[in-house]
Each structure stands twice: as structure tokens, then as C-alpha cells.
Amino acid sequence: MLRQFHKMHGLGNDFVILDARDEPLAMTEALARHIADRREGVGCDQLILLEPSASADLKMRIFNADGSEVESCGNATRCVVKLTGAATVETAGGLLTGSAEGAEVEVTLVEPRFEWDAIPLAYPMPTDPMPMGWENFDRPQAINVGNPHVVFFVDDLEDADLEGIGPGIESDPVFPERVNVNVASVEGGAIRLRTFERGAGLTRACGTGACATAVAAIRARLVTSPVTVHMAGGDLTIAWAPGEPVRMRGSATHVFKGTIDLQ
Ligand SMILES: N[C@@H](CCC[C@H](N)C(=O)O)C(=O)O
User: Fold this and answer.
1) Residue 122 lies in a domain
2) DSSP at 120
3) Which residues bear the site annotation Could be important to modulate the pK values of the two catalytic cysteine residues (predicted)?
4) Exposure check for the chain: N or C terminus, fewer CB within 10 A?
5) pTM flag (> 0.90)
6) Is this prediction's ipTM beyond 0.90?
């Protein structure tokens, strides 16, 4: 079965986007993993499946490179808004809104959640910060911005062995749905960020990671809103105030269109 796909990226966080709004497509964990494989498939950090929605312009389903289906993806939302012109996007993590603003796309995500069972954590404990540590990664803030994140602030970002420690934190039993792991530093009123994504590993940028980290830094009064978040793939501007949804602005790039044989 041949299907057309779009290859897009948001700051180097790359996606294969399949549009199943008119022609349904049964996605499985194994098929998503195969399409995301960089040697045997097209290759991407996340596979995005567009479906019809009763409550928004379209529904966006998100599959990590390991095939797991998850709730939210900030960079992919900007790409989908740019590709389709959708103003409202239904996700498992909530209803998102977006609009193209010149070369950039602005997306409003959900209101961040901080309660232990909204992250979710396995049992009750404080989340700001969590009284836990993994080697020299200590006392993260836990935040759900549609999907689960922990944020560690460190003095030396380059020195942090995120690739080494990321898998253990991602899969620690204290996170029953696993977790995205962010390591950040604050420099001159801006944030520098690296993210080890649940189900995808180190990526060049993570939109929801940037949002969770900006919220954590604003709450801790380390920065003020709006704040620039620098990542390996480029920058995002994040705005947030307590009691409000978090807003993200940045680029979205179409790379190519292709056809894939799904059999
Ligand atoms: N790259 C994304 C996040 C994708 C999902 C994440 N790995 C998860 O499992 O929650 C972004 O830009 O937000």
C-alpha cells in the first residue's frame, strides 16, 4: 500500500507526517518503529499521524521512534500548523491552538500541571523539586505540559552526561509512564537546554521540553517571561504566567515529500 508522506523538522527534531484524514491508516507500534528507523525506514524522531477530529481542525497522533504512542509534541505541532493551516489541533495531551506568524509558528499548549499524579509519579511526593537524585543529577522539577518532563538545572551543561544517565531516569519506576529528561543552565536571562526524549533519546530540540524548562525557570524566578531557549538545533521563545497555558514560538521546516510502501 503506497502512501504519501511529508518529512519536516522543527529545529532539527524531525518528523514523518502521514495524512490519514481522508484515507484511514491503521498504525501499529511495529509499523511506526519501522518507518522511524534511520536505516530501514524513512527515519525520524517522531512519526505523526493526522486524523479527522470532532473537536478541532484535525487530530494529531504522535509515535516516538521506539513505536510508543504519546500525548504531545511541541515541534511537530508547529510543523502540522504550517503544513495544514490548522488553527486547532486535538492531541491526547489536550487541545492546542496555533497560527503561522511570518516565517515562524506560534502554538499555545495546555496549562502546565505540577501535582504528583498529573506528572504522573508512582506515589505522592513534592514535585518542585522532587526529593530524588540520580548520580550527580539532583532534585529535578517535574512538570506535565501535555506530556511528562523532569528538569535539572546545572552549572555546566556540556559536562552533564545526559546520554549516559538519560535512559535510567527515563525508565525509573518512579515514572510509571516514563519521562522526558531535560538538563538546562541559565545564562544572561536565557536558557540553554539539552533533552533526552522518552522513546527517542537525545534530540536536537524538544518543544515541550523547552516549555517545561521555561516554566520551571520562571517558577524558580531564574528568568522572566518571555524567555529564549537555546538548543542544539536552534532557538524557541517561550511565554508563560501562572494559571495560563504555555506559548511557544519558533520555526517549522518542510524538507521533502515522498511515497512509502507500508507493506
Ligand atoms: N520532540 C517533541 C516531544 C515528543 C514526545 C516525547 N518524546 C514524549 O515521549 O513525550 C517535542 O518537540 O515536544
Assistant:
1) no
2) T
3) 149, 197
4) C
5) yes
6) yes
